[in-house]
Amino acid sequence: MCVNDRLHTKLYDKAGRSKYEESLKCSPPTHLLEVYLLTTTKYQIRLLTMSSSKVIIYGGMGGLGQAIVSHFKSKGWWVMSLDTKSNENADSNVIVDTTMDWLQQEKFVTQSVSGALSDSKVDAIINVAGGWAGGSANSKDFIKNADLMWKQSVWSSSIASALATQHLKPGGLLVLPGAQAALKGTAGMMGYGMAKAAVHQLIQSLSDPKSGLPEKVVTLGLLPITLDTPMNRKFMPKADFSTWTSLEYVSDTLFKWSLNQERPSNDFTLFFIFFFKNVGKSPSQH
User: Fold this and answer.
1) What number of other Cβ atoms are within 10 A of residue 250's Cβ?
2) What pTM was estimated for this model as a whole?
3) Catalytic entry in 12, 58, 192, 249
4) Is the dihedral of CA 107, 220, 122, 86 positive or negative?
5) What is the rounded CA–CA span in Å between residue 20 and residue 92?
6) Is residue 33 predicted with pLDDT exceeding 90?
7) Least confident of 89-103, 117-131, 148-162, 234-248
8) Is 257 exposed, middle or buried (0-12, 13-18, 19+ CB in 10 A)?
9) What pLDDT is recorded for position 232?
10) Active site residue 192
């Protein structure tokens, strides 16, 4: 009970209070800062536990986003989720209104995050927001899908980058969502390819010391081929799932990078990290 990331208020009699305090002494947390607030109410103890490590997950309600939120929470981190709906596992949620334009979204998200964090900094900002839509140049939905892809990938990546300039610790980690397919032409999914190529360019620009990010921040791009998500299994039921990358593997790799373990550096040869199948090996680097 003593290691918890939630706020609890309970009323105890004298004996109960003694037992509760004793249990805290028996099982001290190793990664949480505990703050005890005694109120004027008789024997009331209010326990507030705050993780010393913090991460922002943009797209925290997507298939991969939910897995990442859960993984970081299991490690005792404070987690903020940014998405169009709330993630119950996160400590804080910013609900993005998709009817807002780009400037309105940036203003709303920035103000909301600043209000939640106050003066504290985060160790990592990980953007896994996005989606997929097909269509060539002669598709009736070409422009519609291109607009959607731009909003999902480029808007979120740009806003995540702006957040990093304000709230990311020096030496922190910024991860943005690229795509392996967008390293070349994407005739059958032009809107998707254009948006992901723009994110790739943003990643390159952010790696420059003059990008405006805090000192020694590392910016990396995730370029998955196929992630093992429920939606991918639904739409590709006959595929060989063993060749897909598990969400647990991606989540654990991102967690290690957030701790600066096995993390690639800001180098032009290391921008794009490919996740293949979950075989217990480090991701291949290009």
Assistant:
1) 23
2) 0.77
3) 192
4) positive
5) 27
6) no
7) 234-248
8) buried
9) 84
10) yes
The single-letter DSSP state of residue 264 is P
Strands (E), 63-156: 78-83, 92-95, 122-127
Taking residues 126-139, what's their average pLDDT? 92
* C-alpha–C-alpha distance, residues 135 and 140, integer Å: 8
Instruction: Please answer whether residues 136 and 142 qualify as being in contact, where contact means their C-beta atoms are separated by less than 8 angstroms.
Output: yes
Work out the angle at residue 117's Cα, subtended by the Cα atoms of residues 107 and 83, and round it to the nearest 5 degrees: 55
**Under a CB-based contact definition with an 8 Å cutoff, are residues 180 and 274 in contact?**
yes
Q: What backbone torsions phi and psi does residue 65 show, to the nearest 5 degrees? A: -60, -45
Q: What is the CATH number of domain 53-285?
A: 3.40.50.720
Who wins on pLDDT, 204 or 45?
204
Residues making up the chain, counted from first to last = 286
3-state secondary structure (DSSP) of residue 180: helix
Q: How far apart are CA 176 and CA 226, in angstroms?
A: 17
**CB-based contact 36:14 (threshold 8 Å):** no
Compare 131 and 32 and report the one with higher pLDDT.
131
CA distance 194 to 271: 18
Q: Could you tell me the residue ranges of all domains in the chain?
A: 7-50, 53-285
Residue 34 has pLDDT above 90, yes or no: no
Tokens of residue 198, six digits = 């723009």
Bridge-partner residues for 49, per DSSP? 34
What stretches of the chain adopt beta strand conformation (E)? Answer: 7-11, 32-38, 44-51, 54-58, 78-83, 92-95, 122-127, 168-177, 218-222, 272-274, 284-285
